[in-house]
Amino acid sequence: MDTMFHLQTLLIIAAGAIATYLTRVGGYIFITRMKRIPPRAEAALNAVPAAVLTTLVAPAAVTGGLDVSLTMAVAFFAGLRVSLLPMLGIGWIVVMTLRHLIG
Amino acid sequence: MTPATKDEVRDAFRRGIAVAIAAAPFAVLFGAVAVDNGLTIAETALMSATLYAGASQLVGVELFNHNVAPWLVVLSIFAVNFRHVLYSAAIAAHIRHLTFWQKATSLFLLTDPQFAETERRADAGIRVSYVWSMVLGLSVYVPWLCLTIVGGFLGNLIGDPKAIGIDVLLPIYFMGLVLGFRSRANWLPVVLASGAGSILAMHFVGSPWHVSLGALAGVVVAALMPLDGKESEVAIGKTAEGEA
């Protein structure tokens, strides 16, 4: 490790931190000034987490190779029944087993 | 301290530590992945200390590795954290009695579990005090920061993440979060639209645009779906389930 901080990384972290803080106070500031959010805007907002997070899953599951695709499929069904941590454990065991068997 | 305050501190600390234990693997995971993706341990710690939002930290670090334009990394962090807007709107009535600086500091610690616990306490008819909020928040924040640094040191020892299978942990973690939202209105059409949109965008436009284009597809579908007239109850009552 040559330096502790890189300028560009530092700026990204600072901007990300400010953006995050704005989301944490934004709703409070907004709602204490507004009476009602339009229903369609609220429906769109409500979909934001699932919509964003899905984009981090789907391409990885499809393009990551057979071992990753199979693991994601098993983890999906596990996720319907168990919580996050056991789901991670099951996924990890499956991918390690597959890699051991396939090579 | 009055006995009442002591009870508040004890209750908040107990709940906070439970959350910290559940989040511990993710803190270590974040630290390891961050260092693996080229961040220094100091940068990794700074990110945990100032952003303090697990999923978005993992997203941000993931994008660092793809040589994505800086503004897009920030926008992605913002997009993943956008749910906090709903949280702070939902708890507005419970924290209105706090002073300006009390609100400004306690909202910095607003996370998925912090939101859930605040809602639970207010539902039980107990006033949400500043002491309670800060003890709860800090007993998650401090372990999160420390374990991030531990993970960073472990990340330096870990060579190829594929060899020990941690490369699949992130996608599985995000899939778990997505599944945690499945009781929400329009969940399936949103997930299908975002999934298809992101795969198509990855193929035809390329990374990192698959994130914004795929998310846009899901959000547009949600806005165009027929309204069931219960949006506000869904938005406020169900957000906390299953989120790390």
From TrEMBL, chain A:
InterPro entries: Brnchd-chn_aa_trnsp_AzlD
Chain ranges passing through the membrane: 6-31, 43-62, 74-98
Top-level lineage group: Bacteria
Protein's UniProt name: AzlD family protein
Pfam families: AzlD (PF05437)
Alphabetized UniProt keyword annotations: Membrane, Transmembrane, Transmembrane helix
UniProtKB/TrEMBL annotation, chain B:
NADP listed as a keyword: no
Membrane topology value: Multi-pass membrane protein
Chief location: membrane
Keywords: Cell membrane, Membrane, Transmembrane, Transmembrane helix, Transport
Transmembrane segments: 12-35, 68-93, 130-157, 163-180, 187-205
Listed InterPro entries: Brnchd-chn_aa_trnsp_permease
Record's subcellular location: Cell membrane
Pfam families: AzlC
Gene Ontology annotations for the cellular component aspect, listed alphabetically: plasma membrane
GO BP term, pick one: L-valine transmembrane transport
PANTHER family recorded: INNER MEMBRANE PROTEIN YGAZ
Record-stated family: Belongs to the AzlC family.
Protein name: Branched-chain amino acid ABC transporter permease
Organism: Shinella kummerowiae
